[in-house]
Design a protein that fits this description.
Layout lengths: L2 H7 L12 H10 L16 E2 H15 L7 H10 L9 E9 L4 E10 L2 E6 L6 H9 L7 H13 L5 E7 L1 H12 L2 H6 E7 L6 H4 L2 H6 L3 E6 L14 E4 L16 E2 L2 E2 L6 H15 L3 H17 L5 H6 L1 H10 L5 H18 L6
Parallel strand pairs: 4-5, 5-6, 6-7, 7-8
Antiparallel strand pairs: 1-2, 2-3, 3-4, 9-10
Helix pairs in contact: 1-4, 5-12, 6-7, 11-15, 12-15, 14-15
């Protein structure tokens, strides 16, 4: 089954009749991708049902002529669940959004019942601009989005309800970090943390007591063609699920295949194993300062080339390499790092096709 087929199949089952599961988690993690400004309240006293939020969202969209800035598939899921008995009456609130050149953060609270909430953290998409903060995680902790993720829990969450944290891509990392660093009251209410193909942690945080405090609540899910979900330090205890796509497209939640109320399990592809080994070998050769120099140089090259998406990276590889060779102010070691990484990246996204 696809995720939409799962929604259709169980549309009349309430959460009392069919308990929350990992597929519901992925559905909820997609909601934070949607621009809910002026739709969902920024505080818990004003709650709105998913059905009403969907109606209001499309009313505003039509009236204001806004472009849909969220994932097309997140919108598809949102429309779908709003017409089901299972999801339509669930409540949304505590919407937060911050976005500028250096920060990208969004989160929303979903009330499943009187005893349980799911907090959905927004991740990144295929745009290069959304990946820069992911790369900063390799040398900096905490990055701005991680700080906001922790503050979100400490500021907004003070009820006695049990808490599930989740997110996709960078959002999964934010859910993990927020769970680790939340105040003791909030942390005691967290029953599960879902990292849906999200990057891991720097070594210091991975080996910390704060990670030990929450590791038994952690569920790592990655597709069989994974890259993002294998970055940085991770426990090897992850669930590999079947995607209908290869390469970068497997990162898309919409491609993950469902069997009843769970995702179909499979093995990590040979391609991802080799790629992961290459990436780890590459990353381990360099210290935090070198990674910082690399990140700043890489994204300055993308900017000079007018690159905005991963597909454009592949289409402009000759130009990018030329800019790396010709760039002034980039030292020899950083240029070497850039060349090595770009060739690894080309290998990964060579199967990328337009959705």
């Amino acid at each position: 089954m696809t995720i939409l087929e799962y929604i259709d199949h169980y549309k009349d089952k309430t959460f009392k009749e069919l308990a929350f599961n990992e597929v519901d988690n992925v559905i909820f993690s997609s909601i934070s991708y949607i621009d809910l400004d002026d739709v969902v309240s920024t505080w818990s006293k004003e709650k709105i049902s998913i059905a009403e939020a969907k109606r209001k969202y499309f009313e505003n969209y039509q009236k204001n002529g806004k472009k849909m800035i969220a994932y097309k598939h997140a919108i598809d899921i949102f429309e779908h669940i709003a017409n089901t008995n299972r999801y339509k009456d669930l409540l949304l609130y505590n919407y937060a959004y911050i976005g500028d050149e250096n920060r990208q953060f969004s989160a929303v609270t979903i009330e499943i019942n009187e005893n349980l909430i799911y907090i959905s953290y927004e991740g990144t998409d295929h745009l290069v601009s959304g990946w820069m903060e992911d790369f900063k995680m390799s040398y900096l902790f905490p990055v701005p989005a991680q700080k906001h993720a922790i503050r979100y829990l400490d500021k907004y969450i003070f009820s006695k309800k049990d808490i599930i944290l989740g997110g996709h891509s960078k959002g999964g990392n934010l859910a993990l970090v927020a769970g680790m660093y939340a105040n003791i009251f909030v942390r005691s209410k967290i029953i599960k943390i879902y990292v849906n193909d999200g990057p891991g942690l720097k070594k210091a945080q991975f080996e910390s007591q704060k990670y030990q405090n929450i590791k038994d609540k952690l569920v790592n899910i990655i597709p069989n063609y994974a890259l993002v979900g294998l970055l940085l330090q991770h426990s090897n205890d992850y669930k590999v699920v079947l995607s209908s796509k290869k390469g970068v497209l497997a990162h898309d939640l919409f491609t993950w295949r469902v069997d009843d109320v769970t995702f179909i399990e499979t093995e990590l592809s040979t391609f991802s194993k080799i790629l992961n080994k290459s990436m780890n070998s590459w990353a381990n050769k360099y210290n935090d300062y070198q990674r910082k120099e690399f990140t700043e140089s890489l994204f300055s090259v993308f900017k000079r080339a007018g690159i905005k998406s991963l597909e454009e990276v592949l289409q402009n590889k000759t130009l990018i390499l030329k800019l790396v060779y010709e760039s002034r102010g980039i030292n020899k070691e950083t240029k070497k790092m850039l060349r090595e990484f770009i060739w690894i990246l080309f290998e990964y996204i060579k199967d990328y096709k337009e959705l």
